[in-house]
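[Meeting: bench + compute handoff]

Bench side (C.D.) handed over the final construct sequence. Compute side (W.E.) agreed to return the predicted structure before the next meeting so the bench team could plan truncations. Sequence as handed over:
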Amino acid sequence: MSLTSAYQHKLAEKLTILNDRGQGVLIRMYNIKKTCSDPKSKPPFLLEKSMEPSLKYINKKFPNIDVRNSTQHLGPVHREKAEIIRFLTNYYQSFVDVMEFRDHVYELLNTIDACQCHFDINLNFDFTRSYLDLIVTYTSVILLLSRIEDRRILIGMYNCAHEMLHGHGDPSFARLGQMVLEYDHPLKKLTEEFGPHTKAVSGALLSLHFLFVRRNQGAEQWRSAQLLSLISNPPAMINPANSDTMACEYLSVEVMERWIIIGFLLCHGCLNSNSQCQKLWKLCLQGSLYITLIREDVLQVHKVTEDLFSSLKGYGKRVADVKESKEHVIANSGQFHCQRRQFLRIAVKELETVLADEPGLLGPKALFAFMALSFIRDEVTWLVRHTENVTKTKTPEDYADSSIAELLFLLEEIRSLVRRHIKVIQQYHLQYLARFDALVLSDIIQNLSVCPEEESVIMSSFVSTLSSLNLKQVDNGEKFEFSGLRLDWFRLQAYTSVAKAPLHLHENPDLAKVMNLIVFHSRMLDSVEKLLVETSDLSTFCFHLRIFEKMFAMTLEEPTMLRYAIAFPLICAHFVHCTHEMCPEEYPHLKNHGLHHCNCFLEELAKQTSNCVLEICAEQRNLSEQLLPKHCATTISKAKNKKTVKQRQTPRKGEPERDKPGAESHRKNRSIVTKAIVWLAGYNATTQEIVRPSELLAGVKAYIGFIQSLAQFLGADASRVIRNALLQQTQPLDSCGEQTITTLYTNWYLESLLRQASSGTIIFSPAMQAFVSLPREGEQNFSAEEFSDISEMRALAELLGPYGMKFLSENLMWHVTSQIVELKKLVVENMDILVQIRSNFSKPDLMASLLPQLTGAENVLKRMTIIGVILSFRAMAQEGLREVFSSHCPFLMGPIECLKEFVTPDTDIKVTLSIFELASAAGVGCDIDPALVAAIANLKADTSSPEEEYKVACLLLIFLAVSLPFLATDPSSFYSIEKDGYNNNIHCLTKAIIQVSAALFTLYNKNIETHLKEFLVVASVSLLQLGQETDKLKTRNRESISLLMRLVVEESSFLTLDMLESCFPYVLLRNAYREVSRAFHLNRVPANTH
């Protein structure tokens, strides 16, 4: 064939187009196979029972289906013909695309044979690669076509529906049906078709021999050659990494295996006639059990080869070779690849470290980066496809690698380095192209003995293009485009590889070497990202998700690999690289796959990181807890008794042995335990147990201290993390809708501590400024004072903050208002009598007849006492908040307290309440509690008028005043000097009376002082009348009850001792104090004597 014909045949252009087209057709065949193998995505009419007879008929008669005379068999198809056409058009056209692709492939292969093209991967790399790629792609398409079980039904049904709808079958059906029949046994037919192409195929494959042997060296040979090492020869560190065959250095071994296996499978005749072909083939058979056709579809190398050769005469020795090679693979390949992965972990880590430290080396040593990526990708893909497909093996460890994450991480690090320093690479290679490659190429062109015009024009354009490059283009951020230059070189390879070409490339190897170098250098300017995809794309994981997830799980179980686990979500970004424009419907699915798994991996990593940090925090918290004062009692006791008591050699049975100092430094096994601030609270809803606020605060501070120290190493925003976590804990629910410590402590104080205080098992002690548990015989009480003293309230305020304390206050007020509602009901029931009492309280005779008519007096006192207990606890909590606020924000506390001092009785009530609300939020006590006012305001009934509500409030105070004498009969109403209170908490009545009165009369806009004076007068008269009582049982604790009058005055800023003196002589209070003190000391004498 003449040179002119070689130009006209456009071999380079056809190979480029057909390879791309072939990939698209292959992906469409893959999609049809996947769709039809899954009942969920299968065409619906293929699953209908009514359609089964038609499907069987079409499958049996294919391709000779008589549509017109088979109405009884094809009735269901006729009914749904329009739907079938609509649904199967894409399927049918895809099969037609396969047929057309087949025609173009054979036409091109015949043309190449006619041109007697010479293939050599080391010289005409692009030409040889494209030729072998086309053969493999075509074979893969045919093999996948034969694996679609419903191919006859899909094609036949479409044609039947087409004939029913249009009156004639599809024009392509006859040839398409014949093709499908021919490829029922695909390899047998393919070997017949490729027989004439054996010379060209075997020649191309033999050119791989040296390269394939070199690339299949073991880890020891790699180590001896110091592969990928930049520091093995320091003087040559900045020398450019060059090769006569640049693209071959990072050519995938998996791709070469596919070429060799499929090539010799189709052109097996040369295996018996050519010892070099046989040698290369046997070497390739010893590498893998499976090769990839596309994605997760593989070819079982030895089984397929053995089955084919067993059916051929004269191939007995080749079958024996296959069996021998299979045994070799099973016995050795696992360890062979394991050792290579181990070598790569060390070598690539060294390479990455050097390049990260000196990124300027990416200029001369860019080839090393792409070689490293290619080597890693080959090892990972080998492991993935064998792990997926080798199900039964005596050595499962050969197909599992717990350290794979490190390789994946190094691959991502190298990719990141290349992207980050792209300008370094561009600047270096631009100068290389302009100042070296262009000059060398020019010299070679001038020394060519023969140079036809077409070739001369192409090569001259190379020189001029390269010579025009300058550094300003990189500095200005110009986009380079050398795809035209590379396509011209591809054309030149085709022109100079035909038999009758005047200029033969194999006779001018220097031209091939320099052009291969120029191609690589040009790719460093305009297609680095494409080269990264070519050498390191791991989108195969998108189709081996089970293996991907298993590798991730193994990584999380291996502590030394955790640092590399971030590689897995990064790999998910590769999934989009496996799409093709001929199958656009795949893109959303693959994108969602990538996003889903990326999110899952990141979520799991965040969870693992959180668990790890919280575990260390918990350990720090435990160490901090050991420093709490409560743990020193045992040590002090032992030290105190050491001189007098002989130390026991062994501890008592059941007594836990305490760790000695330093034990915390011993290395512990890692255990994953989820711990958080709520967990630290230790709340148990069943037993109503909870950690003391001060202990929780110490634990939280230990957590915060560790997180802050950890942030110094990680560069994390620890302050934001801490703020977010603690701020969430000041709300009733966190961002996940879970209960916080604010809710837990609010519930616990209300349901445990205050409920027991209401029942009389816990009392409020003003002297101790805490709630105190009363000892009960036979009962094991918790110490209420450990949860309610000043330090605990301060710790509670520190933990809950103003928001949390506001939530606590609102819950307390809800309980207060519940009691007020009941009190109002009792007042309404006794309203008539209370009105009379209010008018006649100074008339003893009339009072004697009115008082017995009152009902529920004890209930009134009980409910008012409960209110007092709640308000006393709130006052302590507010004091804790005030101290914390003063400590954190002293510059704010001063102005708030100053503003409060400016409030006078004449100030507008709305302004007063606004100022008091501000003060209350900072923990400052107020004469009128704004929270209580707001809570009571929400109780206003629509049916009652303000006047009636006001009347009820006035009568409530009267009811309380005349009920006080009833308290004297209660044995628990004895005033304790030690506790500064009563065992039945009636001293809390005073706070309830003052604060409820202030809130009620503020709400009704009445004078608080006037009504409290009225209460003082009525109460004084009632208690004075108690002095005339002759029944000793009723006057049992008269003196103690009298002291309540002074407590009322002390509690209120509206009352004074002078007001009290006017209605209740102070001498009575003095006598009462004396009697109470005498009784208290008399009661203690027997106990002390005992």
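W.E. noted at the follow-up: The longest helix spans residues 316-357. C.D. will use this when planning the next construct.
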